[in-house]
Amino acid sequence: LIAIEDRELRQFALEIHALWKKLCHIVKPEVKNNPKRYSILYLPHEFMIAGGRYREFHYWDTYWIIKGLLASGMHDTAKHMLQNFKYLIEKYGYIPNGGRTYMLQRTQPPFFIPMVYEYHTVTADDEFLLSVMSTMEAVNFKEYLNYHLIIILHLIIVIYCLNFLMN
């Protein structure tokens, strides 16, 4: 941010960067010990919310948040958010739509691997990549498709079709 020469633009960038502190949340340890007492899902690390009225993560939004964290040089926070998703995949078999128990019945298009890709592209953290490799392999895309297909006259139409251009 210091490299921005225009004083007004630099000030604007610093104000945006300061927003991360307001968007950062940590789940209390009591949630892990007494999950039935809370609607929020336990996460082992801090996470960012998209803002507004939400107090929990939302899966799809996190892709864009991670891109912002990486652009802000907040690599550890981005890594912690990915570790949270690894935790959720290992616990539930997928990443829920959001961080509440009532969101456990649905998910969103699979963004975990693209998130890891974005993180690794910026950090070249091979050790982390190896630590999540088996989790990425465990994400069962066929199971995801079973919940997101419509069968019409023996035709299968994929509702969500993602095409990530990877180098």
What can you tell me about this protein's structure?
It is a single chain. With 167 residues, this protein is mainly α. The chain has one domain (7-158). It is built from seven helices and four strands. Belongs to the glycosyl hydrolase 37 family. It comes from Brugia timori. It is an enzyme of class 3 (hydrolase).
Give the N-terminus to C-terminus distance in angstroms. Answer: 27 Å
Based on helices, strands and strand pairing, what is the structural class? mainly alpha
Number of strands: 4
Please state the CA-atom Rg, rounded to the nearest Å: 18 Å
Strand order of the largest sheet: 1-2
Taken together, the total number of domains comes to 1
Mean pLDDT: 86
Oligomer: single chain
Order of helices and strands: HEHEHHHHHEE
Low-confidence stretches: 154-167
Give the overall form.
Answer: globular
β-sheet strand percentage: 5-15%
Main pleated sheet: 2 strands, antiparallel
Q: Considering DSSP H and I runs of 4 or more, what fraction of the residues is helical?
A: 40-55%
How many individual helices?
7
